[in-house]
Amino acid sequence: MRTYDFTPLWRSTVGFDRLFDMLDETQRAVEDNYPPCNIERIGDDRYQISLALAGFAPDELAITAEHNVLTVEGRKADKEAREYLYQGISSRPFKRQFNLADYVQVTKASFDNGLLRIELVREIPEAMKPRRIAIGTAPLEQIATQKAA
């Protein structure tokens, strides 16, 4: 795996601390790919995360969205001890985290047929959206008055 030195970018950028921290973290982290997941774009500002959680029940899962980080945790309830001859379906505890961009909000979550689906939407505030600025013209008399003064 390659590592990158972001020092030159630190010298010429302001306000990108969170982005560089995420890049540094991904270089250092050993990625655990359990449980498997899909991340889909389902519209211009709509996304869906699907996690394959065979053997888990909805009450054994916790979803938390806090400070632009979505966390999904699962822990099997110890209902009864079983003796497995072969256990191919993993039921180990897990914690998956997803970094969310600014203004991305979790709208709903559903659990069906072993798939946990989390829907997200990006809602940019009106004040942050681009707006068209009207170009006005000043009367010639007003321009002449300003030059004379």
Automatic annotation (TrEMBL):
Gene3D superfamilies: 2.60.40.790. Keywords: Stress response. It comes from the Bacteria. CDD domains: ACD_IbpA-B_like (cd06470). PROSITE patterns: SHSP. It holds the Pfam family HSP20. InterPro entries: A-crystallin/Hsp20_dom (IPR002068), ACD_IbpA/B (IPR037913), HSP20-like_chaperone (IPR008978). Residues 28-138 form the SHSP domain. Belongs to the small heat shock protein (HSP20) family. This is Small heat shock protein, HSP20-like chaperone.
